Amino acid sequence: MRCLKWAGSIEGVCKMNIVISKNKIPIRFTDERWKHISLGHPEMANYYYEIIETIEVPEKIYEGNYDEIIAIKHFEKLNDKFVVVVYKEINNEDGFIITAYISNKVNEFLKRKLIWDSQK
Predict the structure, then answer these.
(1) Is residue 48 in some structural domain?
(2) Over the chain, what is the mean pLDDT?
(3) Which of 89, 100, 104, 108 has its CA 20 to 30 A from that of 81?
(4) Has residue 84 been placed in a domain?
(5) What DSSP string runs through 69-107?
(6) Burial category of 115 from C-beta neighbours within 10 Å (exposed 0-12, middle 13-18, buried 19 and up)
(7) Residue 56 to residue 69: CA distance in whole angstroms
(8) pLDDT tens-digit readout, 47-85
(9) What's the pLDDT band for 103 if we cut at 50, 70, 90?
């Protein structure tokens, strides 16, 4: 993970993190996306770093309906739930996070095409 700041940034405040996906593509995690996720899915408010880890070290990656990628990862503190991160890889040099949420609905992913599995 790499933090990017720009002119006018408040000292110590990161405006955008760059997370590297399993395909070795930099994925942008902007402050705007974090606000969208933490306000739209308040249960995610304490899971910023788990979102990053889910992209960097997922357990499974599935194909989305509109060329997006869906990464999932279980975390012990979530018991039987897991973090889901939806992101898009635009090309070999750029991508961005769309959203993230917590789920316990494993079956919703079984009907999707599995792209990558950490167990294989």
Answers:
(1) yes
(2) 90
(3) 89
(4) yes
(5) EEEEEE-GGGTT-EEEEEEEEEETTEEEEEEEEEE--TH
(6) middle
(7) 13
(8) 999 999 999 999 999 999 999 999 999 999 999 999 999
(9) very high
Domain-located, residue 5: no
Residue 111 CA to residue 115 CA, distance in Å, equals 12
Number of structural domains found in the chain: 1
The sheet with strand 82-91 has its strands ordered as 2-4, 16-20, 26-30, 94-103, 82-91, 69-74, 60-63, 114-117
61 DSSP β-pair partners: 71, 116
Instruction: Say what the pTM is.
Output: 0.89
Q: What is the DSSP string of 32-78?
A: HHHHHHHHHSGGGTT-HHHHHHHHHS-SEEEE-SSS-EEEEEE-GGG
Q: CA 27 to CA 43: how far, in whole Å? A: 22
Give me the domain span that covers residue 100. 14-117
- Closest-CA residue to 79 (of 112, 97, 99, 103): 103
Return the structure tokens found at 51: 């979102």
